[in-house]
Amino acid sequence: MTIKSVLEVLNLSASFGTHSVLKAISFSVTTEQITAIIGPSGCGKSTFLRCVNRMHEVVHGASISGDILLNGASVYGKDVDPVLIRRRVGMVFQKPTPFPTMSIYNNVAVGLRLNGLKKQAILDEQVTESLQKVALWDEVKDRLSKPGTSLSGGQQQRLCIARALAVNPEVLLLDEPTSALDPMSSGKIEELLRELKKNYTIVIVTHNMQQAARISDTTGFFLTGELIEFGATKTIFTTPKDTRTEDYITGRFG
Amino acid sequence: MNWDFFTKLPMPVGENGGGMAHAIIGTIKLLFVAVAIGFPVGLMGGIYLSEFDGKSRFAYSVRYAADLLNGIPSIVIGIFVYIIVVLPMKHFSTLAGGIALGMIMIPIVLKGTEEFLKLVPSTLREAGLALGMPEWRVILTIVLPTAFPGVMTSMMLAIARVSGETAPLLFTAFGNRYFSAGWMEPTASLPAMIYTYSISPYEDWKRQAWAAGAVLLLLVFLTNIISRSFLRPKKMV
């Protein structure tokens, strides 16, 4: 298997106004892997994710330097349209965000329609496929026309993952996707991610260290905007090089 | 009140019977013009304030102007429209009356729209953007539909408010004993009829003023029901 880096982060710094949130981060994410990003609150984990799909700049006063390469091409290139980048990078948020005025079906189809897909038969097929991928199909196939918000929290989150997957993103970003869910639903999502990594490159931000240890192949530890350590999850959790990583993982702070 | 009230024109003083058909039609026409002005301007203004650039100096002045407009006595708006529309055209008209009512509607719709759009959680906007939607599409397909019931409510509120306005109409739509000949002609309206009839010394006219009041209420009520049934969440597929 050739190791191909899907995401290459080059000396990335980000800030809000004068407040610097990320300081010169560099690492790369390889294909068909789950990369976990751990660290205490406010260390820049979410900001990092938002830099990848250019959502960081949506916030007033946000700025950025350095670069991110998505499959070799710069995300911050001069004539790169952020809207098109966001179609290549899927994102799932902490709180499930199904669009309340749309049905379950439309919540998934909205991204497909965005990409110009109009034929009903193909839409049906792709929606079904996406819902099957997140193991939601059997639960919702009889009520596709019901609002997306009528589902339970865990189902809503899987619906959001299906929505993100429908457009076949090159990378899937998850920002603490299970922190608002109960252990059962979280378990289901973890299981799902393990399944999805066969076809997608996944980056997940999590506060739950056990979760990072369970599902990820690579882990990055962020602390106050710096990348302290980055490497194979096993190494990070068993023999961390940096004492700060060890302190965090063993629960001495954070 | 009987059927004639809805279908006939007023009778000369002293004769019983007659109706206010011209005023009912007049009020509907006036509201039509008012809605055509008040809804789009108010809606677009509200979208601008909530979704674009809401903190700029210009946005502040728009907001301030809307508050001011809301606070201006309606008769002053009537005089204003009298000067900018009636005088140049040299006669009273349905159009002028509608413009006056529309101006009263603008701040109500605008503030309502802004407030209800702001209530839409920003996480939904972000989810839309993260999906690769351009901003205008996020607004059209996610933010507006989510806030729609609220926006609709503020529009209904605006209709209810202006359909009872009398003062601005005295200077603009004026009044008419017959059916108005067109948009450019003066027209009767229910509130104005209520006003003239209720201060008249004739018992029969006073009775008709009460009836006109009831019809006006009914009209607003019907608008509400019709718009709500139109806009009830359709079956989603």
Largest sheet of chain A: 6 strands, mixed
* Distance between the ends of chain A: 37 Å
The CATH architecture of chain A would be 3-Layer(aba) Sandwich
Shape of chain B: elongated
What fraction strand of chain A?
A: 25-35%
Distance between the termini of chain B: 47 Å
CATH topological fold name of chain A: Rossmann fold
**CATH hierarchy class name of chain A:** Alpha Beta
Instruction: Please indicate the percent range of residues of chain B in DSSP E strands (runs of 2 or more).
Output: under 5%
Overall domain count of chain B:
1
Low-pLDDT runs of chain A: none
**Which blocks of ≥5 consecutive residues of chain B have pLDDT under 50?**
none
Any overview of this molecule?
The complex is a heterodimer of chains A (254) and B (237). By secondary structure, chain A is of the alpha/beta class. Chain A is built from ten helices and ten strands. Chain A has one domain: P-loop containing nucleotide triphosphate hydrolases (Rossmann fold), CATH 3.40.50. Chain A has helices at 45-52, 82-88, 104-114, 120-133, 137-140, 153-166, 183-196, 209-215, 233-238, 243-249; strands at residues 5-16, 19-30, 34-38, 62-70, 73-74, 89-92, 171-175, 201-205, 218-223, 226-232. In chain A, strand 7, helix 7 (183-196) and strand 8 (201-205) form a beta-alpha-beta unit. The model of chain A has no long low-confidence stretch (mean pLDDT 89). The longest helix of chain B is centred in the first third of the chain and has 31 residues, at 21-51. The model of chain B has no long low-confidence stretch (mean pLDDT 88). Chain B is built from ten helices and no strands. Chain B is mainly alpha-helical and 237 residues long.
